[in-house]
Amino acid sequence: MIKNTPLLELFEPAYLVTLDEIYHSHWVARKRQRIVFLKEAVSHFWPHGHPSQLIHVTGTNGKGTVIHYLEQGFTENTGSWTGPHVFDYAERFHINGKMASHQEIVKTYREILLPYQECFKKAHAGESLSFAELGILLALHLFEKYQVKWGMMEVGAGGRYTPLMALDVAACILTNVGHDHPKTLGTELWQRALEKAGIARPGIPFFTSAEEPALGYVCKTAEAEGAAVYVLQTKELDGVCLQKNKEPEFKRRNLALACKVITHFYPELDPKTHRMDDHLPARFWHVAPNIIADVAHNVNKVGMLTEQLKTTYPGRKFRFLLGLTRNRDVREVFSPILELAEHIVITSASYAGQDPDDLAALLRKDFHAIEVIPDPTTALQMEKKRLKPKDILVLTGSAYMIDQALNPNPYIQHLNATFGRRIISNSMKII
Predict the structure, then answer these.
(1) Cα separation values, 190 from 13, 29, 73, 86, Å
(2) 212 and 346 share a domain?
(3) pLDDT single digits (tens) 346-371
(4) Minimal CB count within 10 Å: which of 8, 116, 240, 385?
(5) Distance in angstroms (rounded) separating the CA atoms of residues 256 and 253
């Protein structure tokens, strides 16, 4: 059957998208209307186009890292909008590698975005700009204020129907296609490739470091949208050098992809890759010499964390503090780390978290040394007291859990944990 032996020649991106949109017409119409709303806002603020060169970045893993490398590699003013944040909403906005200040966010929102929101509501009864749309506009205003030449903007999930499709871009980047968001993006690899590569635009360069079997789907989809496709070649990995000698291949791929984009626009430029780092919040972050936090939340990200742990600490076993959100399969997501685990504590993951007792019951089918400590802060404190001199504790599975365990600001921590508290889930009406 075709499902078991996928034939690339039968993969027709435009027709498959058409069928999917007919099958889910109301959902698609709503998504496309949000893109139109954001286009209206962008045209209102920048009738002659936004002054920055914008780069659109999607993929299962590595989006934030590639953006971080691009910020360091471009020689002119850079800005970025990424997500999710770990501790502070301001983490989403960077200018020349530095996080935007709280004061700038308050000023931009109150003086520019809030007045526009009021006008928007009058023009579109029953509608308002969303969380993502406000974030995009906030970033664009910061880019303009600081005369950003290159602005990198990250897709949260998917690509084809993201609000970012409202923007004109100089380039599109797809890092890779893995197993993420199957409920919304599709259960099949080709479906997720179709969604992510859907960011491609006619005549706009499209860069990817995707590998087979996803690569064929990615290229056909981007080409069907009229993009010029540039695929990272294995030999291009030889031209990059990270700060640390021992780094897993996925980090080199991310760096090589960023360099490919930079040299496309600046052929004469030789990026000083050995000076670049990927110190992003809670990405293989050494909270202490014996405590690591990493926001890996799907099987691909957890697999990369496992590879990083093996490379950095060969032959070692680890203690894990885990939390998981939404409807993810705990046995699938954490399967890569079980070979490295000597003890696992399951805890909660704030508003979006799954019940830790339920998670533990399922994971015990594969690993027995598991206990449940529901509160993340308490769980971390207890584990810290148990650590022996050579033990290493790894916090992973959810950015929300890491936030609740480690956020130094109790006010922001509480707002993060109660995100959406003003929305009634069954009716989705604002109180």
Answers:
(1) 10, 22, 32, 30
(2) no
(3) 999 887 889 999 999 999 999 999 99
(4) 385
(5) 5
The type of residue at 238 is D
Which residues partner with 79 through β-bridges?
Answer: 95, 151
- Alpha-helical (H) ranges within 199-284 are 214-224, 249-265
pLDDT score recorded for residue 149: 98
30-71, pLDDT tens digit by residue? 999 999 999 999 999 999 999 999 999 999 989 999 999 999
For the entire predicted model, the pTM comes to: 0.89
Q: Which range of residues forms the domain containing residue 345?
A: 285-417
What is the number of domains present in the chain?
A: 2
Q: Does residue 424 sit within a domain?
A: no
- Answer whether residue 194 is part of any domain: yes
Same domain, 108 and 251: yes
Q: How far is it, in rounded angstroms, from Cα 397 to Cα 279?
A: 19
Q: Are residues 186 and 292 in the same domain?
A: no
The region that residue 372 occupies, defined by phi over 0 for left and psi between -120 and 50 for alpha, beta otherwise, is beta
